[in-house]
Amino acid sequence: MSKISLVVVTYNRLALLKECMESVFKFSDLLSHIIIVDNASDLETKNYLVSLGNKIDYIRLEKNLGGAGGFYIGIKYFTEKTSDDYVWVMDDDTIPNKKSLNELIKAAQKFNSFGFLASDVRWIDGSPAKMNIPSVEDDLWTENKDYVRLKRATFVSIVISRVAIETVGYPIKEFFIWGDDTEYTKRISSKFASYFVGSSEVLHKMKGNIGADLMNDSVERIDRYFYAYRNRYYNAKHSSKKVYTKYRLRVLNEALQLLFGSYKNKFRRLSVLIKGTFAGIFFKPDIEVRHKLNDKV
């Protein structure tokens, strides 16, 4: 029987992390390893994770590497420190249940050879989580009535095969936040068929069901959009010429909207957009491939 590890990345969201873990522990018999990557959270989070003892494989980082760095570490640990066949990854504000995993396992058994399998991610009111809507493989979306072929998904409840990781390498840790999951899943789906598993539902307990929107997001979140524009530019640059051209036009349009529109702190927002976009032009991170099983992480 195939073995599955779970990777959860956390940073200073103890109440949500506890809810996630309490749910996971209800079906932990289905998991060979529960790997928690702690992005240098506060002492209260550390104490809680230490208290779980051998229920988890606890990796505490010395500094916050962002979601991208956390998933890089977690997936690398899975690949190089376990012999499990698949890794199930999610954020600490994801609330799964036993059916979530069972349906992913059923899909894994059906396809045997695949890149990744993505759950149906829902917000707290039951509507689709806007931050986690996957990208469909347009020409193949009707190939299978129960499982839709995907190009991209997010790191909120996807199962990735070991073979896919060994083939394409690890997520790019330098992304820090935003776009690392879509870059990685696109890299995987370019080599392996990957699927949306609609019968596997999870809850994503975000504060609000909104997408990433620099022009309308709260003031305290503006600076983090540097990574969004840098990483989006990188992803567009490594896509087709058509996608790259459309993205540059989109950024130009957003810049003009900010410049001439009525937005709170609009020049600060515009500055972040410009700085992130120019950084993306010169952003050339390496893609790391796996090492031997007994190498150190």
From TrEMBL:
The record's Gene3D superfamilies line, in alphabetical order, gives: Spore Coat Polysaccharide Biosynthesis Protein SpsA, Chain A
Q: Report domain Glycosyltransferase 2-like positions.
A: 5-111
**Keyword Transferase tagged:** yes
What's this protein's family per the entry? Belongs to the glycosyltransferase 2 family.
Q: PANTHER family from the xrefs?
A: GALACTOFURANOSYLTRANSFERASE GLFT2, RHAMNOSYLTRANSFERASE WBBL
SUPFAM superfamilies according to UniProt: Nucleotide-diphospho-sugar transferases
Q: Which domain of life is it from?
A: Bacteria
Biological source species: Latilactobacillus curvatus (Lactobacillus curvatus)
Going by the UniProt record, its keywords in alphabetical order are: Glycosyltransferase, Transferase
Q: Please give the pathway this protein is involved in.
A: Cell wall biogenesis; cell wall polysaccharide biosynthesis
Q: Name one GO molecular function term.
A: glycosyltransferase activity
Tagged with keyword Glycosyltransferase: yes
**Protein name per Swiss-Prot or TrEMBL:** Glycosyltransferase
